[in-house]
Structure formats: structure tokens, C-alpha cells
Write a structure and sequence with these properties.
This protein is of the alpha+beta class. The protein has one domain (9-40, 51-115, 129-473): Outer membrane efflux proteins (OEP), CATH 1.20.1600.10. 60% of the residues lie in helices and 10% in strands. It contains 11 helices and 4 strands, in the order ααααββαααααββαα. It has a 4-stranded antiparallel sheet with strand order 1-2-3-4, covered by helices on one side. Helix 4 (80-101) packs antiparallel against helix 5 (148-214) and helix 6 (220-255) packs parallel to helix 11. The longest helix is centred in the middle third of the chain and has 67 residues, at 148-214. The chain is elongated, with a radius of gyration of 37 Å.
């Protein structure tokens, strides 16, 4: 290695600065137009008082039940799906750091040695030549004139940001799942209570019918009708007991630890559970409020950047291998004065024939971008449908609950009258049993309708982006990156 050099922190910095100024061949990113209507179906256009958006309402404020808050805290700490989402972020961050490191030269300390025989001279005495080197080496550093490495780095950054949004989506879904399962558990307890009360009433009716049958006052038809209703209540009790156990198991899975049922045992009454209403806003708000839409856009940005890398593959690729250090034919004198030197080995590769590999790579990148655009638009359309469905539920469940409650009140009054008429011998037992059966069904319907209403409110909060509050909601695009 002849010559001397004062090697190269300055050289490395100059290479990095020179490379950083290269233009990208990636297309300019333009956000696709949202393929949905400007307003949700049935949304009011009248001016209303400003209200915080669902995405700005923290879950601690939206859910007021202390037991539910405790369950959500446990789930956020232990749920395995959320843990996987966090680890995906760590993996994507590491991959981005690898791509970013490709923009800078890699400097290694190198120590090499070689020994080889020389051709035998005329006198027949051969020699062995030894060469030992030690120093710093830069191997195959690519000058990114056409932005290939930068485009790959931009794609990795977008994928990393997409996994961040994926974690937020997972958190929103987890919170909503815990809430809906918890409310379902409250409803199961309410239905169990109704079933147990009905079972007591029907046992009394059956005992009375049997007593009257044994006394010859009632027919066997009355006895068998009472027995049928009693067994129907026993069937309903077994079903409700099984359903509550399934709800407990589902809650335990969401919490990621055993003992979920014990935490839920401190729950409030189903009848007193309430949730606050949230404004729907506009469909355009979803673009920046829903993490799954932001995730799809980041994946689109990554596909856009990959096109730049595929285009750059058509242009020359210039790389540099350099070493600086000391060389000697004897290992003992490797670091003596006068043995310092350097080598520079630039290389330029110009694609001439690759059997269509680069063209296929570009076509694949463009197809991937088309897929990403369609996926992004589908996510928006799905979000629009989910919000529209939840709004439809909000608009109708209140009236449905009012009607079912009124029906249950009417059935309760009917049962009291039928039972009174039966006790006084005015009506048959069949009228009383029919009123009893109708009252039980009406009370179950009230609980099921109220459960659907509460879960619809949770769903509306979820689909509007509630459950994750982030100050910086703007999607990072290539033009806005530092």
C-alpha cells in the first residue's frame, strides 16, 4: 500500500453529505381522494354547539364505571395481541435503522495476512511471499446518486410508522372489546336474575297446578302446561349460566391473565350503566382520526417509495471500497514507521442486460402501489360503513328500547290481571300461564335491546377513532419528513 494518507473522517462525512443531496426518483406522493360521500347517511346539517371529537375523548373519560376502567388497565398491560403489536413496532424500527445506516459508509477495522509461493527461479530455489495488513476499511459503499438507498429508507420509515398506527388500532379494538364483553357480562347477570325470578314463580305455579290436579279441581292439561313452562325456565337458566361462563372466559382472554371474573365481580348494575354520546363529525375527519386509515396510507407511501428504488435500478451504481493502514511482509514489523499506505477501489456498474429483471421489478413496484391505493380506499369505505351502521343504531335503539320497555310494562300489568282473575276463578290457568310466558320474553327483550344499545355506543366510539388520543395526528408524508 504505497503512499500516505490522513484517513478519513472528513472523507466519510463528505460522502454522506454528497449522497444526502441526491434527488429521489420516487413519484410525488398525492393522497388519493376519499371514495365516500361528504356526509354520513342521515347526518344533520344544522349548526350545533361544538363538541369534542370521539378521538379526542380519552377512554378514561368515556367509560365512567370504575370496574371497567380497572379491567381496561389490566388488558392494556397484559393482552398478548397488543404485546405483539408493540413488538412489531420494535422490529419495524430496527429495519428502518438498518436502511438508514445504508446511507453512510461502514468503517471496519481489518487485519489480514496472506502467504503464497513465487514461481521457482532458474536455480530452482523457490520463495514464499508474505503480506500482512492492518487498518481501516470501507467496503462497497454506494454513492446514492439516484436515490435508491434513500427510497428504500423512506419505504422502511413508512412501514415503521404503519406499525405504530397498527398498535393504536390494536389498542382501540382491545378497549372496545373489553367494554363490550364487560357490558355483556352485566347483561348476563341481569338475564340470570330475571330467569331465576321467573323460575321461582313457575315453580309456585306448578305446585299449585299439581295440588289442584290432585284435588280434582284442575285438568291434566293445566298441570302439563305449568310443567312445560317450569322446564322451559330451567332450560333458560342453564343457557344463561353457560353464556355467563363463556363471557367470563372471553374477558379473561382479553385481560391476558387469570382472575378476570374476580375483577368483574365488583361491577355495577346493568340498569345503571350509561355511556356518553359522541358526535359523528365528517367522513373527512376519519382520514386523520382513525389509525387503521393512517396505517393504510403509510403503507401506500412505502409502496410509492419502492417505485423510486426500482427506477434507480436502471441507472449506474457507483460504489467505493477503500482501505488505509499499514502493510508489511513481516508480522513483527507491521506497525513500524514507513509502512503506512492506502488504497481506493471505485466501481461503476451500468445495467446492460439483465433478462428483464429491472423492468419486472419496476412493474412489480407499480402493481404493489396500485394494490396499496385500492387497500387504502377500501379501508376508508369500510370505516364509512362502520360509522354509518353505528349511527343508524344510535338513531333507532332509543326508540326500540322505549317500545320494548313499554311492552314489558304492559305484559307485567297483563300478568297481574290474569293471575288475579285466575285466583278468583274468573279465568283459566292457561290465560295466566300465557301471560307469565309473555312477561318473561318481554323482560328478556328489554335487557337484550339495552345491551345492543350500549354496545352500539361503544362501537360508535371505536369506529370514530376513540380510545387512542394522540396530539400529533397528521400523517407523515415524504414532503413533511425532516
Amino acid at each position: 500500500m504505497p503512499g500516505k494518507i490522513n484517513f478519513t473522517p472528513v472523507f466519510i462525512a463528505a460522502c454522506a453529505l454528497f449522497t444526502g443531496g441526491c434527488a429521489s426518483l420516487a413519484p410525488d406522493y398525492i393522497r388519493p381522494a376519499a371514495p365516500v360521500a361528504a356526509q354520513f347517511p342521515g347526518a344533520s346539517t344544522a349548526a350545533s354547539a361544538p363538541a369534542p371529537a370521539a378521538a379526542d375523548i380519552e377512554w378514561q373519560s368515556f367509560f365512567t364505571d370504575a370496574g371497567l376502567k380497572q379491567l381496561i388497565e389490566v388488558a392494556l398491560q397484559n393482552n398478548r395481541d397488543l404485546r405483539i403489536a408493540v413488538l412489531n413496532i420494535e422490529q419495524a424500527r430496527a429495519q428502518f435503522q438498518v436502511r438508514r445506516a445504508d446511507q453512510f459508509p461502514t468503517v471496519n477495522a481489518a487485519l489480514t495476512g496472506s502467504r503464497q509461493p513465487n514461481p521457482a527461479p532458474a536455480n530452482g530455489a523457490g520463495r514464499i511471499t508474505s503480506v500482512y495488513t492492518a487498518g481501516l476499511a470501507v467496503t462497497a459503499y454506494e454513492f446514492d446518486f439516484f436515490g435508491r438507498v434513500a427510497s428504500l429508507k423512506d419505504a422502511a420509515l413508512a412501514q415503521y410508522l404503519a406499525t405504530e398506527e397498527g398498535r393504536r388500532t390494536a389498542q382501540i379494538s382491545l378497549i372496545a372489546s373489553v367494554a363490550t364483553t364487560y357490558i355483556g357480562l352485566l347483561a348476563d347477570d341481569e338475564l340470570l336474575s330475571i330467569t331465576q325470578q321467573t323460575l321461582v314463580t313457575r315453580q309456585a305455579s306448578y305446585k299449585l297446578a299439581k295440588l289442584r290436579f290432585d284435588s280434582g279441581v284442575a285438568s291434566e292439561l293445566d298441570l302439563r302446561s305449568a310443567e312445560s313452562l317450569l322446564e322451559a325456565a330451567n332450560t333458560a337458566l342453564a343457557q344463561q349460566t353457560r353464556q355467563r361462563a363463556l363471557s367470563e372466559n372471553a374477558l379473561t382472554l382479553l385481560l391476558g391473565q387469570a382472575g378476570g371474573a374476580d375483577l368483574a365481580s365488583k361491577q355495577a348494575s346493568f340498569a345503571t350503566t350509561t355511556l356518553q354520546d359522541v358526535p359523528a363529525g365528517l367522513p373527512s375527519d376519519l382520514l386523520t382520526r382513525r389509525p387503521d386509515i393512517r396505517q393504510a396510507e403509510q403503507q401506500l407511501i412505502a409502496a410509492n417509495a419502492n417505485i423510486g428504488a426500482a427506477r434507480a435500478a436502471f441507472f449506474p451504481r457507483i460504489s467505493l471500497t477503500a482501505t488505509a493502514g499499514t502493510a508489511s511482509s513481516r508480522l513483527a514489523s507491521l506497525f513500524q514507521a514507513g509502512t503506512w499506505g492506502w488504497t481506493l477501489t471505485p466501481q461503476l456498474l451500468l445495467p446492460i442486460f439483465d433478462a428483464g429483471r429491472n423492468s419486472a421489478g419496476l412493474a412489480s413496484s407499480k402493481a404493489a402501489e396500485g394494490i396499496a391505493v385500492a387497500t387504502y380506499e377500501k379501508v376508508i369505505q369500510t370505516a364509512f360503513k362502520e360509522v354509518s351502521d353505528a349511527l343508524a343504531g344510535r338513531a333507532t335503539y332509543a326508540e326500540q328500547l322505549r317500545a320494548t320497555q313499554a311492552q314489558a310494562d304492559a305484559e307485567a300489568a297483563r300478568y297481574r290481571l290474569a293471575d288475579l282473575r285466575y285466583q278468583n276463578g274468573v279465568a283459566s290457568q292457561l290465560d295466566q300461564l300465557d301471560a307469565q310466558r309473555s312477561l318473561f320474553a318481554a323482560r328478556q327483550t328489554v335487557v337484550q335491546t339495552r345491551l345492543a344499545q350500549l354496545q352500539s355506543q361503544v362501537t360508535l366510539y371505536k369506529v370514530l377513532g376513540g380510545g387512542w388520543k394522540d396530539e400529533a395526528v397528521a400523517v407523515v408524508t415524504p414532503s413533511s419528513r425532516p
